[in-house]
Specification:
Elements lengths: L4 E4 L6 E4 L2 H17 L8 H22 L5 H9 L7 H18 L2 E4 L3 H11 L2 E6 L6 H9 L8 E3 H4 L6 H10 L7 E5 L2 H10 L4 E5 L16 E3 L5 H11 L14 E4 L6 E2 L5 H8 L9 H13 L5 H11 L5 H15 L3 E2 L3 H10 L3 E6 L5 H10 L8 E4 H4 L6 H11 L6 E5 L2 H10 L2 E4 L10 E2 L5 H7 L6 H9 L6 H5 L7
Parallel strand pairs: 1-4, 1-6, 4-5, 6-7, 7-8, 9-12, 9-14, 12-13, 14-15, 15-16
Antiparallel strand pairs: 2-3, 10-11
């Protein structure tokens, strides 16, 4: 396959970096000053604060290396760095992104490799698209760094783990980047300094080339797991490698099983998972307190839910305001109520058959994605799925919290199409609510309904009973495994005939 796009790592690749303990302690004053300006003053000296920050970030990185999940900055600083100061967490949440950016900019000595501008200019002459894929806690540090070096104009797309929610070497972040570049993974090259993140991830994703550039700084990591296609001492060695790849790989590429339906997008809640104890802890909490519903309770609850689910209100603020709507004003009781809601939201069960179904569909070549309304970082749901063996198969994740609108807004579905490079009629949406199925159909998606509302429209219905009846009994129906059975019905008027997915018989 002809090489189309090359992606770069940033730290250790486009730039060199180094640090010493003394350098970090000295620069800790920058973080301390910023925290003090925002009302956070801890009873520790600079060295103690440095140890707290470095130890917390180190613990987080060990966890993220295993999980391949990138948490939001508020969770990183509250859960790993300043876990012993819960009274400061609300203030920390407001400045967490700035803290992460300051940490990444001031805890390392960074310098662009001198050959980078010339290499990028030569790449442009070769007609290759260029992007970057970077593991980073901050959403602002990498764009700021590329702009500082005067090279930001070369990079499109810029894919960050802090935005996508998964870290290298998870192949899904490489799939995501390739789709944003509108390039098959087999037409992409990746250049990075780490074997255990960069080379391994690119190879798992099926990139044509995975090239390692040497970086002298030793951070103590065990760097192994794959064999790079080439090793270069600096980026100047990249040009002849790319010229050779373009010359030798001019075939038409791998068959991708072209068919009418190429992608399947799922709603998450009540499709992939359910909450067996929905509102259990909240109801127990309310039973212990005097409830005096605020005027216009339902309308106000919907308003703050819309704000939270569209990313305009933090989730803990949403919980707090919801408890207040019940007429509860005592501070301790509000905190208790918030904890009850959180327990309910994090008590989930996976429908029978879902892991097997999702993995079977992935193995058959479907692009898989999720389009969901949620107020929580979607990485948390991916972590749930990871525990059941289907957290790393997703090519696209569209979250209302990140997009800024809720279904049935067209942009929720359109963004999925943009990221895949497909046409709406080449995609299926699996949902349960009337409004989300209407939204999908309005954009041009084919639709499958599970656990559906009585008036839900769809091309195919996964069961014959409305979810409204089933919810009363708390019986989970519409199992994901049924979808696999439906897709197997490739003959005699089965779902593949009705939706046009005959190119992918399961």
């Amino acid at each position: 396959m002809v090489l189309q796009t090359m992606f770069f790592d940033v730290g250790g690749t486009l730039e060199t970096y180094s640090c010493t303990r003394e350098f970090r302690i000295k620069n800790t004053v920058i973080l301390r000053k910023f925290m003090a300006e925002n009302g956070i003053e801890l009873p520790v000296d600079d060295e103690q604060l440095y140890e707290m920050i470095s130890g917390g970030i180190s613990a987080y990185r060990k966890w993220s290396i295993v999980s391949m999940i990138e948490l939001g900055t508020d969770e990183i600083w509250s859960r790993y760095v300043f876990m012993d100061y819960p009274e400061e967490h609300e203030k920390l949440n407001k400045i967490a992104e700035q803290l992460s950016c300051l940490y990444e900019l001031n805890y390392y000595v960074r310098e662009m490799r001198p050959e980078v501008p010339a290499v990028l200019a030569e790449r442009r002459k070769m007609g290759l698209r260029i992007g970057c894929i970077s593991n980073t806690q901050s959403v602002t540090q990498v764009p700021a760094t590329l702009k500082k070096y005067g090279i930001s104009q070369y990079f499109d797309p810029v894919v960050l783990s802090s935005v996508y929610g998964r870290r290298k070497p998870d192949p899904s972040i490489f799939y995501h980047a390739a789709r944003l570049a509108n390039s098959p993974t087999g037409a992409c090259a990746y250049i990075g300094d780490k074997i255990n993140r960069d080379v391994l991830g690119a190879k798992k994703a099926g990139f044509q080339l995975a090239i390692q550039v040497r970086h002298a700084f030793d951070d103590g990591e065990i760097d192994e797991g794959a064999e790079p296609d080439a090793v270069i001492e600096n980026l100047s060695g990249l040009i002849p490698l790319l010229e050779l790849a373009i010359k030798e790989n001019s075939g038409s590429g791998r068959a991708n099983g072209c068919g009418k339906v190429k992608a399947i997008f799922f709603d998450a809640g009540d499709i992939l998972y359910y909450r067996p104890q929905r509102d259990l802890h909240l109801n127990e909490f309310l039973a212990r307190h005097t409830v005096n519903l605020a005027p216009g309770f339902e309308a106000e609850r919907k308003r703050i839910k819309d704000l939270a689910f569209s990313g305009q209100m933090k989730r803990h603020d949403y919980y707090r305001e919801l408890i207040r709507l019940y007429g509860i004003t005592d501070t301790q009781a509000i905190e208790e109520g918030m904890a009850a809601i959180s327990r309910d939201d994090n008590t989930v069960a996976i429908f029978d058959g879902v892991p097997e179904t999702i993995n079977a569909l992935k193995a058959k070549g479907f692009i898989l994605g999720i389009i969901t309304d949620t107020a929580m970082p979607f990485t948390r749901k991916l972590n749930w799925f990871d525990e059941h063996g289907f957290g790393r198969v997703w090519d696209v994740v569209i979250s209302s919290k990140e997009i800024g609108v809720r279904k049935p807004a067209p942009s929720m579905y359109e963004e999925a199409i943009v990221q895949t490079g497909l046409k709406p009629e080449e995609a299926v949406f699996v949902g349960h609510k009337t409004h989300e199925l209407v939204g999908a159909r309005a954009v041009g998606f084919k639709t499958i309904a599970f656990n559906y509302d009585a008036d839900a429209p769809a091309d195919v219905f996964g069961d014959g009973q409305p979810a409204r009846q089933l919810q009363k009994l708390r019986i989970p129906q519409g199992r994901g495994g049924d979808l696999l059975a439906m897709v197997r019905q490739d003959a005699a008027g089965g779902v593949c005939d009705r939706l046009g997915c005959g190119a992918y018989p399961v």
